[in-house]
Amino acid sequence: MSYDVITIGETMLRLSPPSPLTLEQSQHLEVHIGGSESNVAVGLARLGMRVAWLSRVTNNTLGDKLVNAIRAQGVDTSHVIRTDEDRVGLYWYEVGSKPRASTVVYDRKNSAMANISPDEIPSDVFQEHHGKLLHVTGISLAISESAKATLYETVRLAKQAGFLISFDVNYRSLLWSPEQAYETCHTVAQDADLIFITARDTVTLYDCSTDHDEAVSAMSQLYPEAHIIMTTGKHGAMLMKGNQLFKQGTYQTQPIDRLGGGDAFVAGFLYAYLSNHSSQDCLRWGCASAAYKYSISGDIPLLNKHQIQKIVMGDNSNDLIR
After folding, report:
1. Is 68 exposed, middle or buried (0-12, 13-18, 19+ CB in 10 A)?
2. In the chain, where does DSSP find H-type helix?
3. Residue 193 annotated in active site
4. Distance CA 219, CA 221 (A)
5. pLDDT digits over 191-205, tens only?
6. Alpha carbons within 13 A on the beta-carbon side of 12
7. Rounded Cα–Cα distance for residues 130 and 166 (Å)
8. Is residue 265 within 8 Å of 286, Cβ to Cβ?
9. Beta-ladder partners of 240
């Protein structure tokens, strides 16, 4: 089978108290499925793309829950490695309310994906004409040395087969230091055709200016062959390729759950990019998909292509290009 996009990474179970309760207060927990790469896969599948998700998952009821939830959204999970060893990773998330910050607690050590090895990659997937693009993130690079080696090898195989490489830096301070993240992410970014990064992470990892124009320009100079896509929080997003800079403002939304918003942005952008839309339209689809995701509870971006297209078509006020 030929895919538009293949993703690889860890997906976990997310446990959260019903809002607005704290973990300390709550006697009940809501269970969600959360993983950056699988979120992107689901978002793309719901927009009509042919997508496969690769991972290593424990062969038990919890592993079944993860795989079934992702497959139910139209993602091909037939290449997922199932193992009787290790465990499914967990994370605990408590929604904050100012001045109390939101809280994340990881419980993912020795998870099945953390113990993946390069020789477990289904290399037959990465053949010429079997796919257009591989999407990876810095999160799965950070979870273990064996996972990092596996992602390095996956990128190598994909490039060898003629795939485009999409890389979301997605820095998580709970997983590694800025110095460790820069060294590893730089290795992958050098091979990437599209690099997604937040303005905050350009400062933390790359010591860029807090001025957004200067930051995206510095990233473009460092990776001149790549499209640099930088999200800028309430200001929207920017895209720089060569000397061309595009900007897109945010769309109005009433946030219900912000987790997965960045992944929804990536999914919307990649959908438009692989559908040969203009650079400005790629940003529109990304920002519209993120806004739409904020209105949905849970990590998974249950995108509705028709509704997002209406959002994109109705906007003409925030476009900037030079």
Report:
1. exposed
2. 36-46, 61-71, 138-142, 145-160, 178-189, 199-206, 212-222, 261-274, 279-294, 305-313
3. no
4. 5
5. 999 999 999 999 999
6. 21
7. 16
8. yes
9. 228, 245
Nearest Cα to Cα of residue 52 among 66, 36, 71 = 71
Query: One of 4, 263, 281, 299 is an active-site residue; which one?
Result: 263
Quote the tokens at residue 117.
């090895």
Q: Is 101 strand, coil or helix? A: coil
Query: Residue 35 has which token pair?
Result: 């993983």
Burial class (CB within 10 angstroms; exposed 0-12, middle 13-18, buried 19+) of 316: exposed
- SS3 state at 256: coil
**pTM to 2 decimals?**
0.94
Count other Cβ atoms within 10 Å, centred on residue 84.
Answer: 9
Residue 163 to residue 43: CA distance in whole angstroms: 20
C-alpha torsion sign, points 17, 18, 24, 29: negative
Contact (CB, 8 A) for 135 and 5: yes
CA pair distance 187, 195, nearest whole angstrom = 12
Both tokens assigned to 97: 């309310």
For 183, phi and psi rounded to 5 degrees? -60, -45
- What tokens does 111 get? 């998870």
Q: What torsion do the CA atoms of 69, 312, 2, 146 make, to the nearest 10 degrees?
A: -60
Residue type, 155: V
227, two tokens: 């499209």
pLDDT tens per residue, range 27-79: 999 999 999 999 999 999 999 999 999 999 999 999 999 999 999 999 999 99
**70, 38 Cβ separation under 8 angstroms:** yes
| d(C-alpha 127, C-alpha 141), whole Å | 23
Could you read off the pLDDT of 297-316 as tens digits, one per residue?
888 999 999 999 999 998 54
